[in-house]
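Hi R.,

Here's the input for the magnesium ion complex you asked about:
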Amino acid sequence: MTESRITVDVDAAADVLRRGGLVAFPTETVYGLGADAASSTAVRGIFAAKGRPTGHPLIVHVAAADDVDAWCAPDARQAVWLDRLAAAFWPGPLTLILPRNNRVAPEAVGDRRSIGLRVPDHPVATALLTTFGGGVAAPSANRFGRVSPTTAAHVAADLGPAVELILDGGSSRVGLESTIVELTGSAPTLLRPGGVTAAAVAEVLGVEVVDGRSGPSRASGMLASHYAPDATVSITGLDAVDREVATLTAGGANVGVIAPESVGVRPSWVLPSDADAYGHELYAALRRVDAEGLDHVLIVPPEHGDLLAAVLDRLAKAAGPRPAG
Ligand code: TXA
Ligand code: MG
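And here is the predicted structure with magnesium ion in place:
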């Protein structure tokens, strides 16, 4: 096969997984690039297709909360936390890092003793996972370090023939990657903010959630530059937009603006002022910036909403220093 195929045929996708191939599939957060989580060969294909450095662990997706037991070896305390969070937030945009058993291919977890598990909340993902019957290791279906895809067309544009089949499930409802909470230590630890807030996790568990993002980089989403478009990104406020556009334009740059209200600059994209709706549209807007061939995009963040922490996190990463080369 030389070109990836966009389809709604779940049975065909499950067959590709059984043969050890790669399938891109929709979830409520972003599209994933999936392979059989128990197969080392299949999982290696993910790293090759994404250009992702090995050692960056993948999330394993399962159909239902009950299926998690087949992959992890939680101690008593973690089992209590797991049960509570599963009941409150699964299916949904929450990934839990738990001590693992030996079922998963070591390549999928970067040789760690832990595993990231998630039950996605999307009918096509559920159908695929149920039909396949196993766990599906899947990072976001984009080239490493780039903006995650929220439609099948984004996946095709990014990965092209590297993925055999793309399941189309429309545009992802949340639009930002899942919240990641690590449950392997003495306190639940937030590794990445997302659609489930740290406050909601703390309330369900009745204990404080430690912010793990300031420590050593443990999740690839925690690297300084990630989720970045081609254009240089800077974060700014509404009142500074005109001045900054003038300065950058005078320096010869093609500049665009993404903001939660209309600014008198072209090209610009107005996103909703609520962070949840803003987050849903953000990645598509970043792709439009690149489609316009802009050198620089000024981004004004939203001000309120449950997804505010997640949006600010992704914006900071898009604006972060880029790796050399
Ligand atoms: O919403 C999402 O989470 C999407 C969809 C497809 O489910 N997936 C996603 O995958 O964003 P990815 O690979 O782009 O990000 C997975 C993150 C990485 O930052 C990785 O380091 C972290 O999860 N992770 C996975 N397993 C881990 C583990 N055992 N310990 C620590 N971090 C882990
Ligand atoms: Mg990713």
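One thing worth noting: Residues 139-140, 148 surround magnesium ion (ligand 2) (CB under 6 Å).

Cheers,
M.
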